[in-house]
């Protein structure tokens, strides 16, 4: 039996790999191995997703941890190269755009192992985002480019990628959302937090450009504090963001706004329960823009651009930038009932994992 080796490392990878892994397991024609690079290592950033998504524990753990971009990418490469020599996989599958994705792609390409990229073709055209570099290089090296939307296909064509390598499969992360939504909504998450459906906002911010500089982040906190006078704003805090709050001594500004509730990172199901019943989502995450579109919850993206333009052209997303005045204004619009309505993009239908499994099977058949 041929072997597919899935490389995962950071929180947003897990919900994309789970449906692919499940679909391959159901077909039963390929052997699978999961390698966790260890880019994310806190239980709340990693383990909880495996258990909640029904993803088997990783077969191998590289334990690389945090570091600079070069350190993290290089450490994954050194360890993964050894794993490949030992395991001799027939296909390496990487997902998304994190440093572990890039490292997996480079190792596969140099070891002449066929490479698949799940979530290929997304482009913000903003090279100040480390993820943009990861996406461009990974797509250049991949043999199978599995895209979530037709605009991604178009981006790849413009870069000269052969048509025969591009497969429009839909959005694997949305497979997970659709599989778990009704279970999540039955959880007592809201009542435990004293929240009522559609009467609160959810916020996540973790992009270096928004949270690494204490002054920039304090201005955004101020805007959130202002919004929190109208509705509670629940803000699960990423470890990178927590660091800035501690080092920038921002605890005092946070406590000035009683409606602004900074909490620990949440598991997949509790967070889905929270987002699916929110009145408004404010974020700089890529995945959450897509989830908001499928959940039909208005989303304000606190960035200057998005690699997921379909969430704007079809979905509920508005890219508002990071000017605190604009953020407050747009939030007010949504909260007064003028949030954007959207439609669910093509092939965000819960079947992306099956389409990918079929493509892997065909690519690996003799
Ligand atoms: C990474 C991805 C980003 C993704 C995000 C999702 C890259 C370049 N960035 O960013 O695309 O949106 O994950 O979460 O790959 N830390 C912990 N515990 C952990 C993990 C991290 O405390 O389990 C802290 C460490 O201080 C670390 C910092 O968070 O230095 C940043 O972690 P890192 O993985 O380097 O980048 P993220 O900001 O998480």
Describe this structure in words.
- This protein is an alpha/beta fold and 366 residues long.
- 49% of the residues lie in helices and 14% in strands.
- The protein has two domains: 3-171 and 348-364, Glycogen Phosphorylase B (Rossmann fold, 3-Layer(aba) Sandwich), CATH 3.40.50; 180-338, Rossmann fold (3-Layer(aba) Sandwich), CATH 3.40.50.2000.
- The chain is built from 17 helices and 13 strands.
- The radius of gyration is 20 Å and the shape is globular.
- The chain starts with a strand and ends with a helix.
Fold blueprint:
Layout: E1 3-8, H1 11-27, E2 31-36, H2 47-53, E3 60-61, H3 69-87, E4 91-95, H4 99-110, E5 115-118, H5 130-141, E6 144-147, H6 150-158, E7 166-168, H7 172-185, H8 189-193, E8 201-204, H9 208-211, H10 214-227, E9 233-236, H11 239-247, H12 251-255, E10 260-263, H13 268-276, E11 280-283, H14 286-295, E12 299-301, H15 310-313, E13 317-319, H16 324-338, H17 352-364
Parallel strand pairs: 1-2, 1-4, 2-3, 4-5, 5-6, 6-7, 8-9, 8-11, 9-10, 11-12, 12-13
Helix pairs in contact: 1-7, 1-17, 3-4, 4-5, 7-13, 10-16
The structure holds uridine-diphosphate-N-acetylglucosamine.
CATH classification class of the largest domain? Alpha Beta
Bound molecules: uridine-diphosphate-N-acetylglucosamine
Strand content: 5-15%
- Report the span from N to C terminus: 11 Å
User: What is the overall shape?
Assistant: globular
Using the coordinates shown, work out and report the CATH topology of the largest domain: Rossmann fold
Helix content: 40-55%
Helices and strands, in order, run as EHEHEHEHEHEHEHHEHHEHHEHEHEHEHH
How is the biggest beta sheet arranged?
7 strands, parallel
Order of strands in the sheet with most strands: 3-2-1-4-5-6-7
Supply the number of helical segments: 17
By CATH's scheme, which homologous superfamily of the largest domain applies?
A: Glycogen Phosphorylase B
On the 0 to 100 scale, the average pLDDT is 97
